[in-house]
Amino acid sequence: MAKAASLNQKPDGVGTTDFANKLTEVTNQLRLMEQKITMSTDRCIQGDYENHYQNLNRITYSVNKADLKFQTELNMLVPSRFTFKKPKKRLS
Q: What's the burial of 9, exposed, middle or buried (CB within 10 Å: 0-12/13-18/19+)?
């Protein structure tokens, strides 16, 4: 008796349902890998951003502190009648 080939069977012996299931598994694995890479990249970018932001805040603080020190020393050296006060800026 000859074997009857079912419609779900490919000539090389791999069933279409098995093939579809394996393809779905591979697709899920690729999706998970892509998510891991994306999350890792996002974490690296976030960490770099926070480091740069902290450095910028430190530098801004140092510059403001140096400017304040310069202004106080200037006020101590030159009497106030000889210094010109800057007019305050109006918000308009």
A: middle
Q: Name beta bridge partners: 15.
A: 9
Domain region containing 71: 16-80
Identify the residue whose tokens are 């694995």. Answer: 29
The answer to whether the pTM exceeds 0.70 is: no
H or E stretch at 58: helix 16-77
Whether 8 contacts 15, CB under 8 Å: yes
Q: Alpha-carbon distance 65 to 71, whole Å?
A: 10
Residue 11 lies in a domain: no
Q: How far apart are CA 62 and CA 56, in angstroms?
A: 10
Could you give the 3-state DSSP secondary structure of residue 26? helix
Q: What is the pLDDT along the chain (92 residues), one digit of tens a residue?
A: 444 445 555 556 678 888 889 999 999 999 999 999 999 999 999 999 999 999 999 999 999 999 999 888 877 776 666 556 666 777 76
